[in-house]
Structure formats: structure tokens, C-alpha cells
Amino acid sequence: MLAVAALALAGTACAQIFGIDQANPVPAPSDAAADATHPHDATSDAHKDAGHDAGHDGGHDAGHEASSPSHDSGTDVAVKHDASCMVPGTTATSCGATCEDCTAGLPANEVGSCVNGSCNTTCPFLQCPTEPDAGCVDVQTDPTNCGACGVSCLGGACRAGVCQPLVLASRGMSNLKGIAVDGVNVYWTEDEPLGGGNVPAGDVLSCSKNGCDGGTLLFSQASATDLNQLAGITTSADASTGPDGGPSSLYVAATFGYVLAVPTTGGSAVTLASGLAQLGQPIGIAYIAPRVVGDDPFVFTAGGQTAFFVDTTGGGCGASCSPFMAGLSSASGVAADSQNVYVACEAPGGDAGAVVWNTGPYAAHHGSPPKPIVGVAPLENPASVSADGANLWVAVEGTAANGYGDGQIVSCPLLSGMGPACTGASNPTHAAVSQTQPVSVVSDGTNVYWANLAGGATGKGSISACPISTSSSTPGQCGSAAVVLAGNLSSPVAVAQDAYAIYWLDDGVKNGPSGSRVMKLAKPTLPQ
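Above: the chain sequence. Below: its structure as C-alpha cells.
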């Protein structure tokens, strides 16, 4: 009893100290009255009220979420645990009852914000399913999703949603001539050492499609012999070979009627043909795969007034190769498909060239006289031909008198087993006009690509292209206007392709040898 009495007295004393009349207790003043009377208490009450409200007055969810913070993307975020977090935040860097930082730890390009006391994330660009967790991607700059999800620039940059060219090799090259690709590498020829000199060197080099330093030397003939000037080059790889395809055989045309087989891994070259004086300096060379089991693979090369097939097996034909076409005029570009071979011929010193064709040498090594393609002759200096199975494409340089501004890309439909179908002026043959000296052309059946050596008023060359029309009423025409894929080039002299990219040689003749380079560009999607 004494203890209880003591507690009662103590309680009374405490009540008296704080001014509380136990007999007639006064109701607690309202928050507003208390705040007005006791400013210090008001601050304390505000803190308490804020915490109470966050837990009970509609902010219960915010407090609950703060105990297990996460963004919509599932990424953990930073949470502030300092004395400054006294009032629920409403900004992206201080959100909710625990002042969560909604901008911390976000995936690339995502934006954090604070919505109703909880963190929220948004993607201001494009969610690409090709990226991990459907990543947020700026397709204007992303080189693996350039212009659209899944569009890779294959090592090149992406600007404004367009893939940019990539320089694969650029050091110590001069007088670039021919280019070819297989599933692994790009190959090219050059015929003069860096720094010039009276004795040119014929070199064959290679570079990974992903780029290299100055290229790997596969073959060199640095002496005043018949092999010192190399020109056309081709591989046994199909044009559609992808980036995972293996190495191929490599064939090179050289001055004074030589054809060489050069190992793609380096080593001694094999002379397949030699001293074919009628060739002069062969410009073009094409590989022809066997049509049936038992056939030999051939390479087809042309120069001067004659074209030859050269057997690539058994050491070739040496100096005894038989001509396949004769009576040509300044033969330059050559092409072959599974049925026929084609040669672009430039008239001596003139502007009235033509394209001729003939059936391949699968049963016999001798052909009948070459047949002109009527619908595309005469041509103003045809330089290059390409066959894609549906159409034959010809790069026509134009005339010096017009500054080569009258160059064009000419097409001719191909009929299976019957050769070109150009029989008259009614055929749509002028696919792209007003080009500036196109010297090399390739086609993949979807787009046609070419190299314009000159650049008109700019003096710079370009790589141009157009989509092949899908309309049955306009076969062989461009489905839309030609576009420049790469401009401001020195002298693009040769172009090649695989299924994914185009490759070209930009010779430094205008800027000196240091300007020479091997270049690559991911194939674009061109609208019809």
C-alpha cells in the first residue's frame, strides 16, 4: 500500500509540474492551436504528423514500397538513410517516405521519375526485343540497332539512324586495283610500292572483315618481271557467303597473260596460265564453279582482244590455254553465272563499247563467236558487269567530253538457260542515269551497288545504290532514285560484296598513297 501511495503521489507531482489538473483535465489543443502557441512543438508535430500520415493517410503504400524499393524495370535503386529525409520527397532523386533515388542503377537510356510517392521508369526511345531485357535503345546512334531494332552496322558507327562506312585498312597502300571477299577476309591487289619508283611491285593482301592494321601480305612480286602488275582478283567463295564462312581459293590476273592461284593463308603461288600474249594486261577475272559432279572449276579472264577459260585443277593450262572469245575490243570487266559469261568491251579510244556474252565451257573449252547484247549497245565506255541470276548489270563510265557526268547503270533481264533478253529499245535498260563515271558494279538481286570514280563538281567519288524494282512491269529498273551511300571518297575503283556488307577500294591517287584505304559498309534497306 505504501508503494501504491508513493506512485500516486509521484503521478500527482508530475501532473502539477506539467500543469495538468487531474481532477479537471483539459482536452488536448488542436494542432493549429498548438502550433500557434508553441512554434518549437509545431515543428516536432509536423515531423510526427508526416510520419503518421505516410503510414496511414493514403501513404501506407508508399511506406510499404519504401521498405522494398524497386523500379518497374526490376532494377534495385539507391535509398537515402540520412537525417535530411524528414518529409516525403516528390522528385526523381528524392521520392517517397524514404527519399528514394529513382535515377540510380537504371539500365542504359531509361529515365526515372517520382509518381505519387513511388519510383517509375520510362524509355524515351525504343524497346528492342533484340537486346537483353528488351533494352531501351536510341536507334539514331546505336551501332547494333541502327535505324531499327536488330540492324547492325558491322563495326561501323551509327549516325542519325544510318550506318557509316568503316575503314578496314589504310596504311602503306598504293595503286589499288581489284577486290574480292570470302566468308572470312577481304582481299585486294596493288601494283606499286609506297613511295613510287620505277619498278612496281605486284602485291596481294588480305584483311579480316572486322578490320586490320595495314593488311597481311599474301604474295609479292617486287621485280621487273611479267608478274609485277596485278589487276583483277576473285575467290571461289559464293557471293552470299556469310561472316562464318571458311577461307577460299584466290585467283589473280597479272600482266602479259598470267593467272595465279594464291593461297589465302599465304605461301607460294601457283601459275595456272602464263604468257597468254593475246590478253595483254587482263583486267577482269571471274570464278566459275562446277555445274555438275565431275566438272572442273574454271576462272574466266579477259583482256585486250581475247578471253580465256583457265582450268584451276591439275596445275592449270600454262601457255597452252585455248581462247574462248576472240575479236574483242579492249576487254575490261567480266562476269559469270551458272549458264553464261559476259565481257564489257571498250572501243579503242572511242565511246562506242558493248557487252558480249557466250555460253560457258562446261562440255567444251571452246565457245562460238561472242554475241553482242543488242539492247545495251553501243555503250559509252562500259567498264564493269555483274550478273545476279535475274539481271545483267553494266557500269558505263560515260564520255570525257561530258566530264563523265553522263555515266549510267544499265540493266538487261536474263532468261534462264537462254542468256540476256535485251532485244531492242523497248527493254528498260537505263536503270540509273547522270552518274559520274561508274567503274565497278555488283548486285545481290535486291539492290545494285556501284562505285562512281568521279564526283562532278565536288571532285570526289562515291558509292551509290538503288533498290531493284519488284514490279513485273519495270524489271531491271531502280525501284526508287539512286542514293549515295558513301561520299567524299578519293577514287573508289572497285567494289565487292557478301550477304551482309559491301566493300570497296578507295585509291589515294588524288590524295597521295596515304589516302588509299579498304572500306566496308553494312548493306542498307532501301525503300522501293
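The domain at 166-522 is CATH 2.130.10.10 (Methylamine Dehydrogenase; Chain H).
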